[in-house]
Amino acid sequence: MEEDQNYFETWTINLPILSLNADKHTMGTRVPPPCPTPLICDGPAMAGLTQLIDDLQRLSEDQDSSDVVFICGREEERIYGHRIMLMARCKSFKTAKRGELCRIPGCTVSPAAPGTPTPVRLPHMHPEVFRQFILYVYTAKIVLQDSRVFEMMTLAQDMGCGELRAACEDHVIATLSVDNACTFLTAVMEIKEKGGKDLKFVELSLLFLFYSIIDKILFRCILT
């Protein structure tokens, strides 16, 4: 009982709150880079921010300097990264113990030859979703789509990126409608069928979706 209680204290999902602006969002939500210092975001001090983001995006695509390679999906597609960036942005790397590379659920880390990237196998992960995640890690930019948003939410949870998981939750709340409710539900059920993910998190995702639907119904009742 105590173990389950600790689990739910750690794996909470922000349930939706009724919002009058809920229907102003589109099907794909772009998450902009956060402003480091809101008071000076529009000032000359931030003049180099755009160039910095462009440089970091190029770094995310640089295989020669990478020291980690993620092998994703049945196709074993290789997606490269830099451990120092992952440690700065992802708790699954930041909290790894001495001798560990990372603490990603369901991954397998293999020894690497000197001078080559360390392989991290993620057989349950869709390559395109992980590629979008890596881009977010380096640039804080991402486009969320209904069919993959719960997979991205689960990945954000596994990697320890709370801001991205919150953005996924906001996307569901903002874009949920009668037309795409089945798309969201199918996406969650596909994660469950694939396996490799914590069943409790999938159940919480379904609960989150249920409350989001109820929120929309209440919203329409208020308007009518």
Set out the fold topology.
Layout: H1 2-10, E1 29-31, H2 49-60, E2 68-72, E3 77-81, H3 83-89, H4 91-94, E4 108-109, E5 118-122, H5 127-139, E6 142-144, H6 149-159, H7 162-175, H8 181-194, H9 199-223
Parallel strand pairs: 2-5
Antiparallel strand pairs: 1-6, 2-3, 4-5
The 3D shape can be described as: globular
How many domains comprise the coordinates? 2
Q: Termini distance?
A: 44 Å
| CATH class wording of the largest domain | Alpha Beta
- Residues in helix, %: 40-55%
- Could you tell me the radius of gyration in angstroms? 19 Å
Quickly count the helices: 9
Protein name: BTB domain-containing protein
Domain BTB: 66-146
Pfam families: BTB
Molecular structure report:
With 224 residues, the protein is an alpha+beta fold. The protein has two domains: 52-141, Potassium Channel Kv1.1, Chain A (2-Layer Sandwich), CATH 3.30.710.10; 145-223, no CATH class. The protein is built from nine helices and six strands, in the order αβαββααββαβαααα. The strands form two sheets. The chain has a four-stranded mixed beta sheet with strand order 3-2-5-4. A two-stranded antiparallel sheet has the order 1-6. The relative contact order is 0.16. Mean pLDDT is 78; it is low at 1-27. Residues 66-146 form the BTB domain.
